[in-house]
Amino acid sequence: MSKNSYDVAVVGAGPAGGRAASLIANAGYRVAIIEEHREVGEPVQCAGLITPRCFDILGYARDTIINKVSGADIYSPSGESLSIGKSATQACVIDRAAFDKRVLGQAHNAGATLVPGKRITHIARQGDLISLNRGEMTANLVIGADGAKSVVKKFLGLEEPAYLLNGFSADVSGLDMDSARVKLFFGRDVAPNFFAWMIPAGDIVRVGLCVRDSEFTVHEHFKRLFTTGASSGFLKGGKILAAHSGQIPLGILPATHGDNGMVVGDAACQVKATSGGGIYPGLVCASHCAETAVKALESGNLSGRYLSMYHKKWTSGIGEELEKALMMHRIYASLDESQMQDVFRMLRNPEILELINNVGDIDYPSRLGWTLLRKEPGLLKYTGKIIKHRSEEHTSELQSRITI
Fold this sequence. Notes:
Distance between the termini: 41 Å
Mean pLDDT: 92
Shape: globular
Helix content: 25-40%
Oligomer: single chain
Order of helices and strands: EHEEHEEEEHEEEEHEEEEHHEEEHHHHHH
Strand content: 15-25%
């Protein structure tokens, strides 16, 4: 093979891309990881709150933990609060740049080549190969781990996400906050169709929010956190050190593969719609992506039909959970302020709070969702319509597949 020719080109050096590249390189294949930024992990576009499961998958990177969180204080649209949590660690706050570099370091140790500062703007077929940037590099297989606006997804002709969240966050110093607890703020005036957060991260607090379908920009909503509502009282005296923005895709794509290519992570919408978190599902799906890539290279069959085993594997595993999380997001987005307050009132029941503490799981929110519905039937008046609509959609989809 020539110097710029590879078995696999992974576009995007985030955790999902780095993990997939590491596993494929470990199998003995020549892998390039192409990253548009010169510094891996920067700019940071993530709140950096993950569960210990991520470290269990990787088997390393615990040294990137800068704080451990055991609970959360949640604020309703009116500013009322409820507290949840346990004594044990529920989530870890990581140095995201360091985390990404650790994952890329493993890929490098496995033999993968990192190509930093290279933005892929053009992908085309060149015989049996994939040409990147008009022949600057070629590969037998391309994997898109290049985020919400994935060029690989576009090349493969895959669908766009159902929704795009616009996010804005900042590192803020000078705040007095319990290091073991995050704060979450809900309401259409705060963050339409999503929520805002304050996450203690060592000497600073990560303050941010995501919005969807708002008449105001995400930055305007962010500025309001400091001047109005429950959040403003906690942010007095805070100094913004650095700010970041980005987009998070939500929705289950009908396909995450095509001839000579697959997408993974945010590019594949493998994101929890309840929290916007993508690191854990991205790492899970990266393993399926790498396994499929290795089998396809071994067999010499890189057709979309053969690569469809990747889509089947990840959707039959974590896919159902992501779909349920998306339904929960739709239910939440359908509520007005008074309905949110009503739901909040139901959740303040001591028995419900105990249930949340015992069953709640950031990575698998549906486990709590269905348990809450059984415990508090009053929630059905807000969820029933969405669940019925999704059930009808699912039935229609199955009938369509049978017809095909």
